[in-house]
Amino acid sequence: MMLETNEIVFNEEELREIEKIKSKYPQTQAALMPVLWKAQEKFGWISEDVMQYIAELLQLPMAHVQGVASFYTMYHKKPAGRYHVQVCTNVSCLINGGDNLLNHACEKLGIPEGDVTSDGKFSLEEVECMGACGGAPMFAVNEDFYESSDICKFGNIIDSLQ
Q1: Which residues contact 102 (CB under 8 A, 6 or more apart)?
Q2: What fold, for 12-71?
């Protein structure tokens, strides 16, 4: 995950990549999700200013960009830690100990759910279904997913990132 930058602008190469993304779809609006993802990779999170920039870039209503960005938990609406930890507590994960895993994550990281450690290294988020019901409970760190998890497995992964 990239660190947050002060200037909200894509460089020429990134703008070419966005044009390539747009060319894959019959309507520009369909390119919104991959462009938001690209923006998050560059700016670290999807702020109101980033949403406005994307809306102008894609010539879409700001309300549409906000609606998409706020619907999906994959888009961070506030700064996230270098390692963004997500713990699933939906039905399968909950039945198999997802709530215990989340409570342990809060204790291990020393932060409540939805917060970032003081050093900015970790952020923690409770999420709905991550699509791994057969491997419940699960958690993710950035783009790495860990199924059939328990407190010990969680601790080992977090310790390896310290």
Answers
A1: 87, 89, 113, 126
A2: Arc Repressor Mutant, subunit A (1.10.10)
